[in-house]
Amino acid sequence: MAISWYPGHMHKASKQLTKTMRETDVVMEILDARIPVASSNPMLAAICHGKPIIQILNKADLADDICTLRWQRKLNLKSGRTCLTNGKNNILSLGDIIKAANTLAGQEGLPNKANRTLVIVGIPNVGKSTLLNKLADRKLAKTGNEPAITKGQQRIRLDEKWYLIDTPGMLWPKLEDQTNAYKLAMLGTIRNTAVEPEDIAWFAAELLIEKYLPALQERYQFGNTIENAEQLMQLISQTRGGLQKGGRANLYKTAEILLNDVRSGKLGKLSFELPSD
Ligand SMILES: Nc1nc2c(ncn2[C@@H]2O[C@H](COP(=O)(O)OP(=O)(O)OP(=O)(O)O)[C@@H](O)[C@H]2O)c(=O)[nH]1
Ligand SMILES: [Mg+2]
To answer: In degrees rounded to 5, what are phi and psi of residue 155?
Structure first.
């Protein structure tokens, strides 16, 4: 099934973001540390074009540490950008963000202004509003473990100089690279109603067998090698209660078990993209 999810509120959000860019000094792009390429929205690159960018590899607590470090080094090589990491065990402080924003504003020679604006952008469910709440030290924005929680922009003051604007998560109208689209769906960026969980779990199973077989063996308690996604799904349904009458796997239930395990870190710290350095 070809994946595509671009509901009306995202179209509206992109038009609103284009307007917001006029007053924006620095963009803060939130990427998923597990898939920095697939989680980078090409439409945002066009809308934010020319603005200095703080890239944040978020949910770093769920990604492979060495891989995240390699991505951070690589992304830091680009001029007009700085890359930071953020995760549940290593949360960026307000001071870290303001320091990065001021440094970029200085490096890029932005004209002096009494007030500056930092805008958070990124795909759905990547953790934008959670970060805004952390920086504000209050629960100002609604957050939740499903995509499209934020439907409109929200502005807060960070200090005497900087404002921060939270924006709705955005995908792009045509997800041309379907492997990337499947990665996004696997990590919960696309609404369940727009994808078949069984398809996504099948994709996840193939990827995990290739890259993270020991993690699968430990989680689902099997010693022998699994050859394909079908075998893995059958095994998960047996060990985790996903069987239907007659002993066959209930694929929908088994898909949910596997996807929840991948998304929540129960299979360990997983990275699905490696930098090519
Ligand atoms: N493990 C982990 N979970 C996180 C992190 N940041 C956010 N989350 C979780 O990710 C989910 C989505 O967070 P939100 O802040 O609502 O994401 P968002 O980018 O604002 O999403 P939309 O508004 O739908 O675009 C929530 O369940 C958060 O608790 C993180 O660094 N690590
Ligand atoms: Mg949000």
So the answer is: -115, 135
- Tokens representing 234? 């059958």
Ligand 2 centre and the CA of 3: distance in Å?
22
Who surrounds ion ligand 2 at CB < 5 A?
A: 128-129, 149-150
Question: Which residues are paired to 82 by β-bridges?
Answer: 54
Nearest Cα residue to atom 13 of ligand 1: 127
Answering whether pTM is above 0.90, one says: yes
> Do both 142 and 207 map to the same domain?
no
Per residue in 132-161, is it b (16+ CB within 10 Å) or e — as a string? bbbbbeeeebeeeeebbbbeebbebebeee
- pLDDT tens digits for 23-78? 999 999 999 999 999 999 999 888 998 999 999 999 999 999 999 999 999 999 99
Q: How far is the CA of 149 from the centre of ligand 2 (A)?
A: 5
Q: 257 C-alpha to center of ligand 2: Å?
A: 25
Here the tokens at position 227 are: 């050859």
d(CA 36, CA 114): 34
Residue 146 belongs to some domain of the structure: yes
Q: How far is residue 257's CA from residue 242's CA, in Å, rounded to a whole number?
A: 8
Tell me how far apart the alpha carbons of residues 89 and 110 are, in angstroms, rounded to a whole number: 33
How far apart are the C-alpha atoms of 84 and 100, rounded to whole Å? 9
Could you tell which of 35, 92, 121, 125 is best to mutate to test the pocket of ligand 1, judged by most ligand atoms within 8 Å of the CB? 125
Of 178, 165, 127, 124, nearest to 7 by C-alpha is 124
Question: Residue 214 is part of a domain; what is its CATH number?
Answer: 1.10.1580.10
Indicate which ligand has the atom closest to the C-alpha of 169: 1
User: Within this chain, do residues 22 and 79 fall inside the same structural domain, yes or no?
Assistant: yes
